[in-house]
Amino acid sequence: MFGSVNKRIHETLAERKKRRARLVTKDGRCNIEYGNIKYSEHFAFLADFWTTFVEIRWRFVLFFFIASFTLSWFIFGLLWYWICRSNGDLTWQSPPLGHTPCVENVEGLTTAFLYSLETQTTIGYGGRALTPLCPGAVALLIIQSLLGAIINCFMCGVILSKISSPKKRAKTISFSEMAVISPKNGSLCLSIRVANLRKTLMIGSQLYGKLLRTTNTPDGETIIMDQMNIDFTVDAGKDNLFFVCPLTLYHIIDKSSPFFEMAVDTLHKQEFELVVFLDGTAESTSSSCQVRTSFIPSEIMWGYNFLPIISRSKEGKYRVDFSNFSKVVHVATAHCAYCFHNIKGHHHHSREGHDNPGFEVININDPPNVTKL
């Protein structure tokens, strides 16, 4: 019992260490901290207050929403109370018979607060009403009405912007948990799967990657988080993707690829992070969004290939089986890119591969050597 508990604790700590070690999390968030920022630079966030309000968490948005309205009602309630007190309208001031108040039925702080709320929200129950006796009260009524409209517009705009944020559309774009390296069309390729969970398309989708690692220059300079471009393509090409069904991205491992010097026994000993980007425009909202994910060496499987997930039903409809989205099967693969390109036989595909020619009807059954991620 204690052994299993210790094992779970070690696995949890290892997972947390892995999350801290990567720059981009699996869901696309950047794991980076900023320190030693000049105090004056913090005012830049206030100058760009709209972006600041849109990007803060929902709990703070709801807090500012409630606080802005409640505080404005209370402040204007105090002003209404002051005007009524100056005119001698309050109950404790014992106004004489025939006295005309600035605001009818405002006799204390509570009724002044209620009148402020009714004015700013344009409720107008009719129990409390402004009289034309006090010009200052008329001016205050105009100011509160204008300020209330500004607060309404601003807070509604912030909430609408957060709800319609392109980041929410990115939640429906899913990448495979693991990347695989296997032969593909006579080349050794690193493959990643991506799927659009909505039926609406992503227009003008572009796919690319960045390899992040620490390098040393000939001058002895150490560059942390050095970036190298990684080109990805699909069977239909690189640009103008028809993203209606899950796609498999391929990076050809040739002599120009940073993976060329790696092998099956040295891959997991490397220190790098492969960040994959998908840029596109949502068809329904015309808003641009970017989806990101990353892969570290332990999340790249050498000698495996993804199972097919697209089939065609007897009624002629295409079907995507997402239960196999992240499942892989072992295939015969050279243990290094150099062997694949220079030793005969290593470029041949395994006979254990699963093909789906012509999108025919298939029944996908997990063979014994299928690995589920």
Automatic annotation (TrEMBL):
The keyword Oxidoreductase does not apply. GO terms for biological process: nervous system development; potassium ion import across plasma membrane; regulation of monoatomic ion transmembrane transport. Residues 173-340 form the Inward rectifier potassium channel C-terminal domain. SUPFAM superfamilies: E set domains, Voltage-gated potassium channels. Pfam families: IRK (PF01007), IRK_C (PF17655). The chain crosses the membrane at residues 60-83, 137-160. It is a multi-pass membrane protein. The record marks N152 as: Role in the control of polyamine-mediated channel gating and in the blocking by intracellular magnesium. One of its GO terms (cellular component) is monoatomic ion channel complex. The keyword Flavoprotein does not apply. It catalyses: K(+)(in) = K(+)(out). It is found in: Cell membrane; Membrane. One of its GO terms (molecular function) is ATP-activated inward rectifier potassium channel activity. Residues 24-166 form the Potassium channel inwardly rectifying transmembrane domain. Residues 351-373 are annotated as: Disordered. Gene3D superfamilies: 1.10.287.70, G protein-activated inward rectifier potassium channel 1. Its main location: membrane. Keywords: Cell membrane, Ion channel, Ion transport, Membrane, Potassium, Potassium transport, Transmembrane, Transmembrane helix, Transport, Voltage-gated channel. Belongs to the inward rectifier-type potassium channel (TC 1.A.2.1) family. This is Putative ATP-sensitive inward rectifier potassium channel 1-like. It comes from Scophthalmus maximus (Turbot).
